[in-house]
Backbone:
């Protein structure tokens, strides 16, 4: 199991418990399915802020991205955004392209994991967040 | 040596106290309304779902201004506030609640990804009863809501 998948799966287990009901599974599937596109859009806004050197906007965008990544269990992404948030707060913005390259690469790793887990969550039959083996 | 009747009486009182306590919890839980304010719809909906599963009625808002308006008109029994909402943030909402007689006693939980000691201190300074950091843990959040409602006489 990849690190990204393990982090998200652990978070799903924390959120859903042992045997989530159908409604909860639908909610989790929606969250998983929407995350890549929603995050990509937010990262575009972050990129604009970085390229324009707007530290306050970078801090706000990074904070929001950190929260949603952490909520999903995407811990590496959450850490990247947390670092960026801190640097923006300190007025020490990094060069846009290197950090954005790393963010995009991590998002590319996360996307198929989210898609696969969303399908798994919505599949019929019993579903236990910690029992699946990638 | 206590007589059997005294022991029975003590046992009854103990069991009755437990029953009364459980009833208090039941009453606190089943009639309570909780408002959840967060601009992240996934977080907001997850929290709302968990609270509904725990038996609460839930109101939601995606901005601080909307949250404040709902709180003032609906007078929920408890409030959960994100900080980083556009416009009026969670700290601002909490601060304003303290200034109104109708809302000053509503227990507030701040739930935020801001985890610095300065932010936590500010949260309590503006009147929050609890400050929890994200990512939230559903069981812990529901327990905190439950105990705040009980402590508030709900």
Residues:
């Amino acid at each position: 199991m990849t690190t990204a998948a393990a982090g998200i799966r652990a978070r799903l287990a924390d959120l859903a418990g042992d045997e989530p009901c159908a409604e909860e599974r639908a909610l989790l599937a929606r969250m998983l399915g929407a995350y890549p596109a929603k995050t990509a859009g937010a990262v575009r806004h972050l990129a604009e802020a970085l390229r324009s050197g707007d530290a306050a906007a970078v801090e706000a965008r990074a904070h929001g991205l950190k929260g949603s990544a952490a909520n999903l269990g995407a811990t590496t992404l959450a850490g990247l955004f947390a670092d960026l948030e801190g640097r923006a707060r300190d007025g020490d913005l990094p060069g846009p392209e290197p950090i954005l390259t790393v963010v995009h690469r991590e998002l590319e790793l996360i996307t198929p994991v989210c898609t696969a887990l969303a399908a798994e969550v919505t599949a019929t039959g019993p579903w236990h967040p910690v029992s699946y083996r990638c | 040596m206590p007589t059997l009747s005294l022991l029975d009486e003590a046992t009854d009182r103990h069991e009755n106290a437990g029953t009364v306590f459980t009833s208090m919890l039941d009453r606190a839980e089943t009639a309570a309304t909780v408002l959840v304010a967060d601009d992240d719809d996934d977080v907001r909906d997850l929290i709302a779902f968990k609270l509904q599963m725990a038996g609460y009625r839930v109101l939601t808002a995606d901005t601080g201004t909307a949250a404040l308006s709902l709180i003032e008109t609906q007078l929920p029994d408890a409030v959960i506030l994100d900080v980083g909402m556009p416009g009026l943030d969670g700290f601002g909402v909490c601060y304003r609640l303290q200034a109104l007689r109708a809302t000053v006693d509503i227990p507030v939980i701040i739930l935020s990804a801001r985890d610095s000691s300065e932010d936590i201190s500010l949260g309590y300074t503006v009147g929050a009863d609890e400050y929890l950091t994200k990512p939230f843990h559903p069981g812990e959040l529901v327990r905190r809501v439950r105990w705040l409602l009980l402590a508030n006489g709900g």
Observations:
- The first helix of chain A runs from residue 3 to 16.
- Residues 46 and 115 of chain A are 24 Å apart (CA to CA).
- The interface with chain B takes residues 11, 14-15, 17, 23-24, 27, 30-31, 34-35, 60, 63-64, 66-68, 70-73 of chain A (CB under 8 Å).
- Chain A has a mean pLDDT of 89.
